[in-house]
Design a protein that fits this description.
mainly alpha, Arc Repressor Mutant, subunit A, 2 domains, 67% helix
Amino acid sequence: MTGAETSSKKDARASILDAAAGEFAESGFAGARVDEIARRAGVNKAMLYYHVGNKSALYEAVLLRWMDQLFEELDRRISPDTDAEEQLAALAGTFEALVGRNPQYPQILVREFSTGGQNLSPRVMTKLLELFRREGRILSQGRRAGTLRKAGPITVHILLVVGTVMHLMGRQIRERILALNLGDIPEIPASPSQIVVDLLLNGLKVRPPDGEGAARAPKRHPVRPAAHPRRYKENSR
């Protein structure tokens, strides 16, 4: 296969996955239709099956692509040389950036959480487990340093990640309320992940027992702004 043919195949696959992400976000896994995904991608069903596969394969490929982006960004943003609090802040900022580039992600994430991940394949679940383990290592580092209390990585994941995602989704609700002239509503912060991180860390902070002095003021952890949207380049599989 020539370089041009390889590039064309990657472009076709990327277009199909973009179309599939939109359809799954709007209709859910059960309601999504392969015919509609093919129409959105501008290909016929035979071409869709050739490049990716059936609906289950499409759903898995969409989620794995997002997970690959997530881990790539985590590797770029998080250094084990920094303290656990800074790593948690970077984790939240990474999810904020991911959602900025993939606005369909929150709808699919919320559906999967509400159904217990019933549509997640073993490969996607393995990636999710790897993420939990990474978060667990950050928490363990904080406990060893004496800066964080004991907490489960899944609980922290839900509070940190879902909290950030729901903040971002809240912007749509706010716009709807304003459009209906129902009254004033506070603005969603420019960086929701910063708010969520501050709230989470204040809850995880180790505080001295009574009589040993007041707790230290929480340290601020600036979150990098979400990167400008860019087209995702897939690794060949």
